[in-house]
Amino acid sequence: MEALYTFLSDKMFISKEDWEEIKQVVQEQEICKKDFLLQQGKIEKCIYFILDGVFRIYIENIDKEITIDFGFPNSFISSYSSFLKQTPSNCNVQALTKGKVLYITHSDLETIYSKTKCGHALGRTFAEEFFLYKSKREESFMTEPPQERYLKLFEEQPNLIEKIPGKYIASYIGITPQALSRIRNRIY
Amino acid sequence: MEALYTFLSDKMFISKEDWEEIKQVVQEQEICKKDFLLQQGKIEKCIYFILDGVFRIYIENIDKEITIDFGFPNSFISSYSSFLKQTPSNCNVQALTKGKVLYITHSDLETIYSKTKCGHALGRTFAEEFFLYKSKREESFMTEPPQERYLKLFEEQPNLIEKIPGKYIASYIGITPQALSRIRNRIY
DNA sequence: CGCCGAGTTGAACTGAATCAAGAAACGTGG
DNA sequence: CCACGTTTCTTGATTCAGTTCAACTCGGCG
């Protein structure tokens, strides 16, 4: 729980009282490998904060899966569009390893919005974080070829490359596993 | 100004007093064709609400421009990453036609955050809107081929296709003008 | 030991980029 | 309002990066 406080208070001010209020509604959950935090077609009811484990968000398209995002400890994960709109999600959120998460539900967050001073600022922080992430990814896709996207990813998340099956990484940077394999030995 | 109120109050509650406060800091500006609301390398100090005209956000890459976004009347436009982080932007925001915008500066928005009840909710609304937009775009790029991206765009913004030079549209959907031309007469 | 998923490698294919040239549309000044 | 120059669009030929299909290897696990 301190991990979450540290993460949030780095981005915004949270008073003692507000934090008490928030603590009331934040819940903890152990996750087994391959468990789903959310399945396509369901409505996302939570935002998760990853304490431990690695997660993946993906869309099941015709005949293939498309990886949209990975989640690592000390970051949020959610089918956030579905969460915001409270409409069925078009993606799955799945644990690649066993892990542990904190989460807050949509309705509890609404409560926080109304009951605490920092509520909306909290919601704003979520939204801004999610936006900045997507925005960075967009720029990467628009301006860089696959190889550079891979190298950047490698720089930013060197551990990722070890822990995650290459086929997911390939999909995440928008290429096939074969193409990734070729990029890899082009670089050696 | 009513246009902005209508737009916002559709998404959140704004009290009479808060709106008065907001009105104090919202400014209006006439824009000439080809004027820049922001140039690459500068820090985005505003969020704009488009009253009239069409705008374009683009990145100047090595040897080519990449269109990231268009802006139409009754929507917000800004180099929002730069705005949030208050760091130099890597994109330009330019008017494709003459037009008119409302805007609020970063520091004025901070004032609104502290002075009004709905401040943070307002910031949250901005962030959520921007996020949902990017998210939709990401999904489109990951799951659809260029031709479908074009057709979807055509459905959603039929007027866009008439008003905006094809080369910008091509760039926006991630292809060359030549490829767009071929898509167009493949469909007739 | 044999199976299965993941990764690699090769060959053929394909959609889009690039290069190039000509046609059409646009706007700017006389 | 026309004429000229610039920008945009189109079309064709060629090239290329990445996909697809397919076969083979490797490593973990029942």
Topology at a glance:
Two copies of one chain form a homodimer.
Chain A: H1 2-9, H2 16-25, E1 27-31, E2 36-38, E3 46-52, E4 55-61, E5 64-71, E6 76-77, H3 80-85, E7 92-95, E8 99-105, H4 106-115, H5 119-143, H6 146-156, H7 158-163, H8 166-172, H9 177-187
The first copy, chain A, binds a DNA duplex (30 and 30 nucleotides) through residues 145-146, 165-167, 175-182, 184-185.
Task: Please give a structural write-up.
The structure is a homodimer of 188-residue chains. The first copy, chain A, is of the alpha+beta class. The first copy, chain A, has two domains: 2-142, Sandwich (Jelly Rolls); 144-188, no CATH class. Helix content of chain A is 50%, strand content 23%. The first copy, chain A, contains nine helices and eight strands. The first copy, chain A, has helices spanning 2-9, 16-25, 80-85, 106-115, 119-143, 146-156, 158-163, 166-172, 177-187, and strands spanning 27-31, 36-38, 46-52, 55-61, 64-71, 76-77, 92-95, 99-105. The first copy, chain A, has a four-stranded antiparallel beta sheet. Chain A has a four-stranded antiparallel beta sheet with strand order 2-7-4-5. In chain A, helix 2 runs antiparallel to helix 4. Chain A is elongated. Chains A and B meet through helix 3 and helix 5 of A and helix 3 and helix 5 of B. Chain A binds a DNA duplex (30 and 30 nucleotides) through residues 145-146, 165-167, 175-182, 184-185.
